């Protein structure tokens, strides 16, 4: 057996979610570290936060694979009084590389939105909300539509989402709480601005996070019901990605350990 490098794991991640599927200016890929670094242990996380880095240090992790990029904005200085800069220093000190697959994982077939649909047990999945790319042959879609195993009212389905996604609370936007739901559209993360794309899909409900106040009014005006369970439901990556990495390790005869962050990085609490 051999031990993989960061680059070898990047190659597998980019087969799963090619960078060409990412939205413009989305900082996906290797964020910190060295391509040639040997990796004995990988940690999968939704967010790269100081507490997650401390967890990775304690677990002797060599590579963190995250959904949300660690660096959305470039550092303007390296003053270690800033917690973000201090986190970078900790990663460098402990030789931990960081890789992110963000909107490319959202927009590829079988990626984040498919995983969220699977949590709800949706069937007959199909993509919607196409995203134009520089390579026109790419079939990039930021959303999936699927059928519920059994029809529920909007209100009942909201309760189902709360349970399935294991959230303490969610926001329901509807004028039709008793309407039957048979088909559901999902756009993980902050997808409220894409609500017009739901028209024509047959979905009675859109699931997405971080819906803005005025956008919610527009959704209601268009007769759309929306369930906002928050952005953190994308933590499904912590259960869906590790088995894939283990499959890659087996196929390539790699000696590699894989774990998921056990911390919740949801910044919100319901009181």
From TrEMBL:
Keywords: Metal-binding. It comes from the Bacteria. Belongs to the GTP cyclohydrolase I type 2/NIF3 family. Homohexamer. This is GTP cyclohydrolase 1 type 2 homolog. The lineage of its organism: Bacteria, Bacillati, Bacillota, Bacilli, Lactobacillales.
């Amino acid at each position: 057996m051999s031990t993989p490098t960061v680059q070898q794991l990047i190659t597998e991640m980019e087969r799963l979610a090619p960078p060409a599927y990412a939205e413009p200016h989305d900082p996906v890929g290797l964020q910190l570290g060295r391509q040639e670094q040997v990796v004995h242990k990988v940690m999968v996380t939704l967010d790269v936060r100081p507490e997650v880095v401390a967890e990775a240090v304690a677990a002797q992790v060599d590579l963190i694979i995250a959904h949300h990029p660690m660096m959305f904005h470039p550092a303007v200085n390296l003053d270690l009084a800033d917690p973000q800069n201090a986190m970078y220093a900790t990663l460098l000190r402990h030789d931990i590389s960081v890789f992110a697959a963000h909107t490319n994982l959202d927009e590829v077939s079988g990626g984040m939105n498919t995983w969220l649909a699977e949590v709800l047990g949706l069937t007959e999945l199909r993509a919607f909300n196409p995203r134009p790319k520089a390579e026109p042959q790419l079939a990039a879609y930021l959303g999936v539509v699927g059928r519920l195993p059994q029809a529920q009212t909007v209100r009942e389905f909201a309760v189902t989402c709360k349970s399935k996604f294991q959230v303490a609370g969610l926001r329901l936007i509807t004028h039709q709480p008793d309407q039957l739901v048979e088909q559901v559209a999902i756009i993980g993360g902050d997808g409220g601005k894409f609500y017009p794309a739901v028209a024509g899909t047959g979905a009675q409900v859109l699931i997405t996070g971080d819906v803005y106040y005025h956008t919610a009014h527009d959704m209601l005006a268009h007769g759309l019901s929306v369930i906002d369970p928050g952005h953190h439901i994308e933590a499904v990556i912590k259960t869906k990605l590790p088995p894939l990495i283990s499959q890659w390790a087996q196929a390539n005869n790699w000696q590699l350990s894989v774990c998921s962050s056990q911390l919740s990085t949801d910044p919100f609490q319901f009181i």
